[in-house]
Amino acid sequence: MSVVAHLPRRTLSLTEEEADSPPAMHLTGRQRMTDADRSLSEEIYREFRGDHRHHDFVLGCLNCGECTTGCPAARFYDFSPREMLQIAQNGDATTLWDAMQEKIWACCQCYTCNMRCRFGNDIAGIISVMRELSVRHGIEATRRTLAPFNRSLTLLMTVGTQVSSDMIQPDFFRDWGPFATGSDKSWGVTPAIMRKAIPIDVLQTTTSSWEVSVQTSLELFRIYEETGVLDMLRGLDPDLTDMLIDIIEERREEFTEARERYRADLDRMQGPVATFSG
Amino acid sequence: MNPVLVLGAGPAGLSAASELAGLGAPTLLVEKETYLGGNPKRWHYSLLAPDLRPAEEILGPLIERVEHHPQIELHVGSQVSSAEIAGNGYRISLRSKEGVQTREVAAVVLATGFDHFDSRRKFEYGYGHFPDVVDFKELEGMIHDDRVLRPSDGKAPGRIAWVLCVGSRDIQIGNPWCCRMGCVVSIKQAVEIRQKHPEIQAYIYYMDIRTYGLWEDLYWKSMQDYGVKFIRGRIGAISMAEGGRRLIATGEDTILSRPTEVPFDMIVLASGMEPGTGTKEASDLFHVPVGPEGFLTPKLSDMNTIDSGLPGIFLAGAATGPKAIPDAITEGMGAALRAFQYARG
Lengths: 278, 345
What we know:
The complex is a heterodimer. By secondary structure, chain A is mainly alpha-helical. Chain A has two domains: about 35-135, Fumarate Reductase Iron-sulfur Protein, Chain B, domain 2 (Orthogonal Bundle), CATH 1.10.1060; about 165-270, no CATH class. Chain A has helices spanning about 15-20, 35-50, 50-55, 65-70, 70-75, 80-90, 95-100, 110-115, 125-135, 140-145, 150-160, 190-210, 215-225, 230-235, 240-270. In chain A, helix 6 crosses helix 9 and helix 13 crosses helix 15 (about 240-270). The radius of gyration of chain A is 26 Å and the shape is globular. By secondary structure, chain B is α/β, with parallel strands linked by helices. Chain B folds into two domains: about 5-115 and about 275-345, FAD/NAD(P)-binding domain; about 120-270, FAD/NAD(P)-binding domain, CATH 3.50.50. Chain B has a five-stranded parallel beta sheet, sandwiched between helices. The longest helix of chain B has 20 residues, at about 325-345. Classes of the chains: A mainly alpha, B alpha/beta.
């Protein structure tokens, strides 16, 4: 009889669900899910894997970590674009569900990871697909995570925001762009000092970025209505959605009135203008 | 019998010419540079993996033999400017400073080799801007002369980092292939430096260590006997700190899953292998197809890398893809035999 036969057999204690899931994703300390959450997570997983963007964005991964190296969110949060890509590529319904609870919202969608990735993955893109799914399915955690941003969202959707060229101050971003190492003088400042400049710069641009014309705001909102963004938001927060619609309706009325007044004024001054059809 | 043309005098070409001469075939060895020995000679390669024997000990006798063999006609500083089929062989024009001459050859061995990747193309590493970011081909020369010093101030470095896969496995710059040499050469360099200067700390940033086959031994020994440290992750950017006195390597430690920023005194880039300029020219002259990577394509890559499938044309060395020096020398021998059989008819 061989020696091996006398040794106690080591068995892995896997639950039925774990035994069926991909081997790379046997994470410990998973939270128990309710039946409703489980079936929703499976539905989202099927939709996610079936999305043509998953096929286009997720190519493969050498786990080199260059995406995380450049990631601003990874510096401050327990977040890593590499982990997100790994989950998109190898994860099961539960791992995807876990990532979609909070982590995906740490991404600032700057697309630096895409620029860095030497495999050509669209990492920021696949994260935005996860976000879209979590909003469309009205995941409870998403509602909770996004609640503090309702004020910003209200401004964004009813007014809009814009970035103009004068808001970008290259002096603070010397370690950015193709000429980052171009001149020796630019390296008189250490990266630490340069990075300190970033939040200041953001503060400086907030006032001017909210100066959007009423017509542009209304056109933007029309886009949200027509493309289904508003329907997505309704699934997540119906009260907020109704409030946004109220604000916009009021503005539309104001805008229509203003236009009528303008038209009447024009008529008085010049006579009717045939081409002005509104 | 017309001579056999060997194009390129790196390890593969030298080996092919030497074997052909040994078989008694007249040989025309053409090299566009003014010296023999190719890249190893140009960059003063130090020790070779895996047995850590000096490159001169391997290439020296080959060069010696080729230089003095009566059957070998040497044309350094020369290039083949045109080629056409003539009988079973080729009629070629040889261009040099002295002028152009036309010759007929019975067979051709293409050993046009590789070029080291130009690390300036990975601008995020600051090669060419930061003096202490050096390419590993330059470090070979420094180790060879036992002058491993920071180019900026001539001081001995306290900590050196190697960045692997620079210009390899990278779709961004269009080089998705593995250079095969970066891992083993970097490890060998770290071992060489630690042998002579144990006070210097050596860190290697890697994604996968590909010390394939029997070379794995060097990888294990580098940790066991020489205390070389390995960090899994690719460096994303190199910047300067402390007023230019130190370099900062930014990356992710993908085992700890956290971003890292580590100061170093010197950073070495393991630049990959690209098809040599001569390889492109040889492909144009002799109509040997090149693959998407730009290397010459053998007829059946699965079987051997020597037969081009074209009459009388044989391939050797890094012209067909990244290759180690012993492989290039062995292929040179094989190509010599094939060319000799073809030339004899």
